[in-house]
């Protein structure tokens, strides 16, 4: 029993002794550079990275990027360095780090990752940014220059000054000069403060803040006065930011509630499964992305009609299967639809999974656009805000300008009269409910970009939706829009000083008091519609 | 008390088997050992707990394939407490009183554990609890295989303080007992290390919070004061996905303001695109990326069991793996599944963990664990950047809180006490425990 493991070990030793020889036969100087990266401590790795940058090897950029992504690895047995091309699952396709030649899949077990930490990541990022300063694309150069803010050290001063003198783009020059100024400020130069004045960049502010605490009174004073200036500008920024946050939260509320404004507001059906219709829309987005792997953008666009259809069909099923039998019995409708919502949740849990699903954010929806250096608007929320307004406008158009809208209004105002005028009331009921449900599906598509796509998604929005519809005035679409947006803004204004938990409570208290005063909401229905 | 329960169980089981024993004498040997699984399979917590149910079922299957335990088959008894805390207590009673299970693996949230606790103590059951928790508890009938605060939170803060040089702290958490207690311990710990009040920001959010714009923007502002800032996050469950999304979208880079999380593991990250989050941290006692053969074998078995090539493993799963092996080891040692014998036998039992070391059951019913700090990678995994030089023993009563500082727990004879006050020199009984928990 004892001999085989020994033999095995000897064989492995033989292989170990033999294979590096085979590798080094085609070596060209890259191997020792990578060899030094496989160091015991992060400090040694840092030196090895420096060495690679200085080597000027044309493959160094690829190595550094692979190292940054955790994809530079070493085969345990042969010691060969490889770049992992795709690191999901158990077996990964790899390519040789030296020759770039791809050679099939390797098991995760056999590879040793060259791991880095945040400090090294910073070093790698600034090294890559320095390399990026020479690329032809101006946008990339600006990005690189911005990344260097606060990361400039003594060794970079000379090369950067050379870059500045040769740079055509004024913005890149300005950013690099700021980067150098931060470095000089850290060295204790009072003059550096002047070139940083008025900048809203958070790294500049961080540098000024620490300078304001320095022992040199002249420097501390200059930095403090520059900071006071910046603070003034920041105030306006913060106000705008809060407004944007509020509108964005409001747009989510509007989206979630607008479908309910049709089914509950116009038709008068209390549909507790409304949240689950939203959930179905979100799951449709996920399913779409599964059908179109690698094209999250296209999938996103296609899920807008698909989400509408899926939720609308589910809505029709709920209307035909449950609600039509409970006409005019709100309590029973409430209980029955609550049951439907639980069934739908558990259905998703059993059929798909109790776990959240990943919905990928398309490239054009992630990140933020910068208004100025202290204020940037997150793109996904900007899209959702726009989408909410478009959906609202579309819905208004349907209700005001189409035959369906006319019939819906006729049936809800006076059912018997509408029927005697030849309107098929049952058909209108189905269509209206499908419309409201479909809009909930659209909300789900949008929410998949902001929150978890899981079985509980709907539950989180059902209370908020009812709140918005009731606050806005039942039966009034404009009311829903105004109520949603204003509740969003109120919430976000309260949040910084009251905290998230208390802000939510305060908003609820406010609504309770408001409903006491005006039971019919912000925009009560008037005339005949009010009696319906 | 003890002898009666020893004899009672076999006799009770023997009655229905007596008739069958004539025909097949071997059958009496083969009545299965029942293993109760008390994890939510529906409701809010299903997201986290279903995989734990599957883990225990897989472990039972493996154990049976290896010939069972004491020559008997193991049989899983699964109940669904549906994320409903009072239902946890009812289901625990059902498992112990009706199904007569020999051991229970279960619970996730602290509130569900607290609801089960009196039942397990009353009916003298065994409960293995696999999740990191706030400490301040030690029960004779519960074995805590997850991390206590000193096995997760404190080492993580040490790492940030000493290795990253963090001076300003944001303690962000969901508004319930685990984050509040943990943050209280951390605040006391940080102040003890000379961090001033102005450099600590505490923020609580409701369960399932999804609108993080304002809070993330506040954190950003808090972090631009010129001192290295970090966020210590005890944000729980679903709320993490929108939180991390917002972090990514507002461009908070891990190099500027790292976020270290105590409730975010591989499972939670499957719901997010992790590319913008690379470098943010988590502290656990196990990561799926741990490079050991034991771990790779476990992952292979798990992937085979679930049939999902992309299935992930996480820390509470490892805790169940350790807990299950400790229990089987103790049963073998005691030669019986009888609760009191197993309880005595398990203290000091040591089994391999998945990160290449050993986990030992301590007299306070907590286990020894290594503490690992990992950085999020773009494939939803963690890369381990730091670990404690040796394993850390779980501390039931925190050394940093008034009222709990003087308590120790030791369930060996002759002490047999979960909250012995070393200053008063007496076992506090339930009163001191209530006092300590009341201070939460």
UniProtKB/TrEMBL annotation, chain A:
Record keyword Cell membrane present: yes
Localization in the cell: Cell inner membrane
One cellular component (GO) term of this entry: plasma membrane
Classification via InterPro entries: ABC_transp_permease, ABC_UrtB_bac, BCAA_transport_permease
Keyword annotations of the record: Amino-acid transport, Cell membrane, Membrane, Signal, Transmembrane, Transmembrane helix, Transport
Heme keyword on record: no
Topology relative to the membrane: Multi-pass membrane protein
Top-level taxonomic group: Bacteria
Signal peptide (residue range): 1-25
Pfam families according to UniProt: BPD_transp_2
One of the GO BP terms on file: amino acid transport
Residues that span the membrane, as ranges: 243-270, 298-318, 330-348, 382-399, 466-490, 496-515
GO-annotated molecular function: transmembrane transporter activity
Sequence similarity: Belongs to the binding-protein-dependent transport system permease family. LivHM subfamily.
Name of protein: Amino acid/amide ABC transporter membrane protein 1 (HAAT family)
Organism: Halomonas ventosae
UniProtKB/TrEMBL annotation, chain B:
Signal peptide: 1-28
Keyword Signal attached: yes
Pfam families: Peripla_BP_5
UniProt keyword Signal present: yes
Stored CDD domains: PBP1_FmdD-like (cd06355)
The protein's name in its UniProt record: Amino acid/amide ABC transporter substrate-binding protein (HAAT family)
Keywords linked to the UniProt accession: Signal
NCBIfam families, alphabetized: urea_ABC_UrtA
């Amino acid at each position: 029993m004892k001999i085989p493991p020994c033999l095995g070990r000897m064989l492995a030793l033989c292989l170990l002794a033999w294979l590096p020889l085979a590798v080094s036969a085609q070596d060209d100087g890259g191997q020792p550079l990578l060899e030094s990266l496989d160091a015991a401590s992060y400090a040694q790795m840092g030196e090895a990275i420096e060495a690679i940058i200085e080597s000027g090897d044309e493959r160094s950029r690829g190595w550094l990027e692979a190292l940054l992504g955790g994809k530079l690895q070493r085969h345990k047995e042969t010691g060969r360095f490889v770049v992992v091309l795709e690191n999901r699952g158990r077996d990964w396709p790899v390519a040789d780090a030296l020759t770039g030649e791809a050679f099939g899949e390797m098991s995760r077990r056999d590879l040793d990752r060259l791991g880095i930490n945040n400090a090294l990541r910073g070093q790698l990022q600034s090294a890559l940014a320095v390399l990026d300063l020479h690329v032809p694309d101006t946008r990339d150069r600006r990005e690189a220059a911005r990344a260097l803010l606060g990361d400039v050290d003594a060794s970079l001063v000379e090369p950067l000054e050379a870059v500045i003198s040769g740079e055509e783009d004024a913005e890149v020059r300005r950013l690099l000069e700021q980067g150098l100024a931060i470095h000089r400020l850290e060295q204790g130069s009072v003059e550096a403060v002047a070139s940083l004045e008025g900048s809203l960049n958070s790294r500049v502010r961080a540098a000024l803040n620490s300078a304001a605490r320095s022992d040199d009174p002249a420097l501390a004073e200059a930095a403090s006065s520059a900071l006071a200036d910046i603070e003034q500008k920041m105030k306006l920024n913060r106000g705008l930011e809060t407004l944007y946050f509020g509108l964005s939260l409001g747009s989510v509320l509007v989206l979630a509630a607008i479908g309910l404004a049709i089914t509950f507001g116009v038709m008068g059906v209390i549909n507790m499964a409304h949240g689950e219709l939203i959930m179905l829309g979100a799951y449709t987005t996920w399913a779409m992305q599964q059908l179109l792997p690698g094209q999250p953008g296209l999938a996103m666009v296609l899920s807008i009609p698909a989400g509408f259809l899926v939720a609308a069909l589910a809505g029709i099923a709920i209307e035909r299967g449950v609600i039509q039998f409970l006409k005019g019995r709100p309590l029973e409708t409430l209980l029955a639809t609550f049951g439907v919502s639980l069934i739908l949740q558990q259905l998703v849990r059993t059929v798909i999974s109790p776990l959240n699903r990943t919905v990928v954010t398309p490239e054009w929806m992630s990140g933020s656009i910068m208004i100025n250096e202290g204020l940037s608007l997150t793109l996904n929320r900007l899209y959702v805000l726009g989408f909410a307004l478009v959906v609202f406008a579309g819905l208004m158009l349907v209700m005001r300008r189409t035959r369906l809208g006319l019939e819906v209004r006729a049936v809800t105002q006076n059912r018997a009269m509408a029927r005697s005028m030849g309107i098929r009331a049952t058909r209108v009921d189905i269509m209206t409910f499908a419309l409201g449900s479909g809009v909930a599906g659209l909300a789900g598509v949008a929410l998949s970009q902001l929150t978890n796509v899981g079985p509980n998604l709907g539950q989180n929005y059902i209370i908020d939706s009812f709140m918005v519809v009731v606050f806005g005035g039942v039966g009034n679409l404009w009311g829903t829009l105004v109520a949603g947006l204003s509740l969003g803004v109120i919430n976000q204004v309260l949040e910084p000083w009251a905290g998230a938990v208390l802000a939510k409570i305060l908003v609820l208290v406010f609504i309770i008091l408001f409903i006491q005063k005006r039971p019919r909401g912000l925009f009560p229905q008037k005339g005949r519609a009010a009696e319906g | 008390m003890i002898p009666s329960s020893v004899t009672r169980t076999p006799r009770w089981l023997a009655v229905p088997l007596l008739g069958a024993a004539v025909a097949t004498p071997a059958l009496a040997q083969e009545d299965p050992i029942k293993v109760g699984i008390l994890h939510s399979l529906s409701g809010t917590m299903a997201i986290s707990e279903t995989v734990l149910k599957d883990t225990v079922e897989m472990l039972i299957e493996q154990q049976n394939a290896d010939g069972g335990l004491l020559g008997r088959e193991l049989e899983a008894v699964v109940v669904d407490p549906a994320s409903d805390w009072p239902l946890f207590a009812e289901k625990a009673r059902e498992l112990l009183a009706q199904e007569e299970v020999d051991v229970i693996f279960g619970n996730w949230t602290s509130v569900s554990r607290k609801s089960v606790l009196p039942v397990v103590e009353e009916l003298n059951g065994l409960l293995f609890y696999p999740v990191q928790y706030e400490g301040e508890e030690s029960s004779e009938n519960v074995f805590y295989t997850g991390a206590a605060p000193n096995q997760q939170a404190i080492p993580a803060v040490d790492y940030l303080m000493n290795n990253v040089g963090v001076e300003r702290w944001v303690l962000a958490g969901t508004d319930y007992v685990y984050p509040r207690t943990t943050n209280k311990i951390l605040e006391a710990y940080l102040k003890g290390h000379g961090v001033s009040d102005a450099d600590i920001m505490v923020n609580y959010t409701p369960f399932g919070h999804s609108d993080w714009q304002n809070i993330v923007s506040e954190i950003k502002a808090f972090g631009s004061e010129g001192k290295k800032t970090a966020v210590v996050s005890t944000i729980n469950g679903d709320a993490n996905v929108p939180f991390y999304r917002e972090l990514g979208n507002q461009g908070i880079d891990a190099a500027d303001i790292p976020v270290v999380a105590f409730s975010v593991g591989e499972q939670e990250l499957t719901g997010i695109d992790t590319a913008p989050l690379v470098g943010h941290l988590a502290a656990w006692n196990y990561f799926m990326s741990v490079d050991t053969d034991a771990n790779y074998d476990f992952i292979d078995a798990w992937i085979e069991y679930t049939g999902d090539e992309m299935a992930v493993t996480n820390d509470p799963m490892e805790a169940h793996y350790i807990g299950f092996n400790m229990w089987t080891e103790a049963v073998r040692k005691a030669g019986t599944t009888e609760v009191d014998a197993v309880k005595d036998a398990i203290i000091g039992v040591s089994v391999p963990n998945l990160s290449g070391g050993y986990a030992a059951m301590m007299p306070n019913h907590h286990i020894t664990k290594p503490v690992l700090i990992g950085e999020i990678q773009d494939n939803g995994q963690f890369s381990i950047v730091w670990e404690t030089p040796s394993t850390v023993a779980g501390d039931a009563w925190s050394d940093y809180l008034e009222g709990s500082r003087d308590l120790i727990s030791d369930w060996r004879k002759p002490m047999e006490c979960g909250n012995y006050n070393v200053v008063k020199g007496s076992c506090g009984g339930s009163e001191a425990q209530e006092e300590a928990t009341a201070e939460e």
